[in-house]
Each structure stands twice: as C-alpha cells, then as structure tokens.
Amino acid sequence: MGQSLSCYNPGGKTSRRPLKNKRQLSAACNFADLLGPGRVDLNRASEEELMTLHGVGRTLARDIVAYRTRIGGFRKVEDLALVTGVGATRMAQMKSEVFVGEPGSAPNLFSLDLLSSTRVDINRASLGQIQGLAGVTEEVAQGILFHRTMHGPFRRAEDLGNVKGVDPALLPRLLLQITVGCPRLASTYPDLRSEGLGQPNAAASFHSLREVDMGIPLGWVVPVRPLSQPFSGVHNGRPVLRVASWNLREFSTEKAQNPGVREVICRTLLENGIQLLAVQEVLQEEALEKVCLELENPSTVGVREWPGDRGTWRYVLMDAPQGQETQEVERVAFLWDCSSGLELLQAVAMETQREGVSGPHSQPLLGSFKMGTLEFSLINLHLRPDSPAMTGQPTQASLDLLKLEPLKPFLQDLFKKALLTLGHLGLSPDASEFAVLREQQLEPLVPADCSTELTRCGEEGEGSLQNIWASHTARDSYTGRWGVIRLGLSSPWIPDGWSWGGIVSTHCPVWVELYMK
C-alpha cells in the first residue's frame, strides 16, 4: 500500500480571450464587403466570427454553422430566426450586424426544399413549432411528434399523410410549410414524456437512417439512445446513491478523443443516475480527464442538450509505475460526482502480488467515500484469465484468484463497514474461486444467470463477468435494485472494423443502489 495516486480536481476556469471585432480585407474585390462593411457574412463566417455578434456564444455559433451546412446556405437574414436558440427577437437584434452573401459551399441536396429555408423542418421541430403551422391543432401536432418518435424520422414530406389527423385537405397545406431535413441523432430527439405524451415505447430505441447523407452506408441502421429523463435520486421516498462498475476496455487517450465514445460514457452516467463509477482498464489518465471535461463543458450535442444537471466530476487512479509514465499501463480508477455531496475520504493502492509472482492483473484500488451519514468503502478489482487469449470470458477456470488471498487482512478490517467489492472479476459469481469473498460474508448482487457481456455487434453475450459484492453491512443499505445497462452503448461515430456504429466496450456497466442513511 502507499503507491501514489493521481486525482482530477481542476482549479480556476480558463477565461476566453475576447475576439477583436476586426476583419482583414481580401486583396480581391468583395462586393459583399462593400455592401456591408463591418458586418458578418452568415454564409461564410466561422464559429469564432459568429461569436463576435451580439448574444452569440460558442454553442449558438456551432448551431448556426450546423444549420447553414444542412440547408446549403442562408437565403436571407430572416432565415437566421429558424436556428434553434435564435428566434425572431434575437434575430432582430443581430440583423444590423449580418448580411447574406453567396454560400461558401455547395448546397446539401438532402434538403427537399432548398428554395425556401423558412419552412419548418419536420424532423427537428419541437411540439410548439409543429403546432405553429397553419391548420395544425394541438392534437395533430402531438400525433406528428408521436409518429416521428415511434417510427423514426420522416423520409418524405408526403409521409405526414400517415399521421392520424392529417387528412387529404390538410396535407397539401402542410407541404407548403415544411421540409424534411437530415434527422438529429436520437440522443437529441424530444422526449415524449417532457412533451406530456406519456411513456414512449421501448421498441422505439432504434431508428433507421437509410438514405440519409451522414457519411453512413445506405441501408445501415443507426442505434440510438433510449429516450430518458434525469433520475430523481429517490426510491420509496428516500434519497439513494447509485454505484456502478464498468470495464471500458483499453480506455486510452486516443479512444476518449472519439466524440461518440465520450457521448456514450457521459450519457450512460447521466441517464442512469450513476454518481460513483469504478472503472477498469484505464490506460492513460488523460482519458478520464476528457470525460470529466465533457461533462463540465460538453462538445457533443447529446451531452450538451441533457435536460438535467450534469454535475461536477472528479477521478482518482494510481500513478503509472516509475519509468512507465508515458506508456499505456492498465489501471483501475474511481469517477464520481462531487456536486451530489459525495466525498472521497481516502484512496489507497492495495498490494496483492506475491513476491516473485506477476500477472496481468491491475492492482486493486481501495476507496473510502461519504455521502450524508453513509460511509462506505469500495475495492475496485480487475482480474483476468491467465490464458493469453484475452477474449473477455475465460474458457476454463484458469483465473488466478489466489491473488485475492492478500486482501483478507483488509477485508477483515473493512468487514464491519459498508463494503462493496466490484469490477471485472472474470468468472461467474457462483465460481468456487470466490470462496475468499464468501468467507467474509460478501454476496454478489448481480445474479449468476444474468449476462454482463456484449458481442462486438452489440448483442447480448455470454457470461456474468462483472459484478458487485456487498458485505452484510452494505446490504443493510441496499435498496434491492440493481441493473445491467445494455442499451445506448454504441454510436454512429465509433469505428467497428471497416464500418461504423461500434460499441464503447464489450462489457456492460452494472449498478446497484444504496439508501443514504
């Protein structure tokens, strides 16, 4: 014990340097500049240039550029009001600062109506925007939103005729007011529950994006995030804490740089109300830092548009061994939301390797936490099979769990407190090798017949290799609720061999819930 640890606890914010409202003139004559000196060309401006406009920050500038790209360029200044977050009032304030020049790139031919960008995009419109269409009642607007959520985005404007309430008289009127644009990724779809339409069908978690120009092969089905609302943090009228474990499989800086990976990890934490996560297979500290920064200052739409509080996240992990600081060294770590009141009391590396014996195992990490009056300890483990074929599920009982023997003194001391031993344990919880845990009256909370693995295609795999074991004191606080998260672990932006739509890890996150005494 006593190995040094690395913690993420950022200090002051880095202030953004204001951009000077100056633009260099091109040597070539630009008539747009002559017509509007000092004004911003909406069709050519970068995000930084748009941020010089009144009331425009990074997020809004990014949305303006995205909208401009999708419609192939603004036709008139008033079209700016159609961008989410602008509206008529803000557009009027910005009107004197902007003008519309020739589009800087070829129009996106996916838009079915390039001549009228003032139309409402039926695949992105909110309930209020749909209801604002001429001839559309509240009931019809709800029907359109419900149909879009249940069956996926509209592929043709004429498909509105399949919506209940859109009769042959109303459809021609709607065709003059709408366009069918490139649909948003599912994590940004409006939640039916927030629109007052009740519980959505779980089967609607997958939408087809065939024939959509997103750089994705035709006929490929994009899995999307289940619609969700923030977890209340209460069960049976009592506040609870959700603790989880997730083997992120070779979690390196390069992997964390993928926006799809960051969005999946962050949304999984937020959607499932997880406040404390034990992570396995962390190869580089910067990977964890990128997750914390994504939650703090999101760069992905799915995290940025999360309707609830994203929290303030910290991490702790062991430092790499001396001389291997720049290498990818597998370690375990804890990631937690300190804004929830969760406090790290101590984190200690636990020596388990016997002298002269080495193995592919990460050194366990003991973390002691406090939330309210509940104090508890976690032992984060990652134990692998000795076989060189590291397939995630051992084919024989070759896992050298004898290295758990040195944990016995610690278990005996911690046994009187609320203790959870969790992580990637490599074998089913009913394996005889776990006798050392049962001797200390720890019991697994995830049943042995529940798979915690995924295939590379995202389908349910075989084996219950991830688990959370609880001491009898911890079971006194246990609500009886646990879960294995299988949905929403893939993204169109995660590579999968020569294709896209891969998963973050072949191991599912598992969670349990504790009452806060």
From TrEMBL:
It comes from the Eukaryota. Residues 48-67, 78-97, 128-147 form the Helix-hairpin-helix DNA-binding motif class domain. It holds the Pfam family HHH_3. Residues 1-20 are annotated as: Disordered. InterPro entries: Endo/Exo/Phosphatase_dom_1 (IPR051675), Endo/exonu/phosph_ase_sf (IPR036691), Hlx-hairpin-Hlx_DNA-bd_motif (IPR003583), RuvA_2-like (IPR010994). PANTHER family: ENDONUCLEASE/EXONUCLEASE/PHOSPHATASE FAMILY DOMAIN-CONTAINING PROTEIN 1, ENDONUCLEASE_EXONUCLEASE_PHOSPHATASE FAMILY DOMAIN-CONTAINING PROTEIN 1. This is Endonuclease/exonuclease/phosphatase family domain-containing protein 1. It comes from Polyodon spathula. The lineage of its organism: Eukaryota, Metazoa, Chordata, Craniata, Vertebrata.
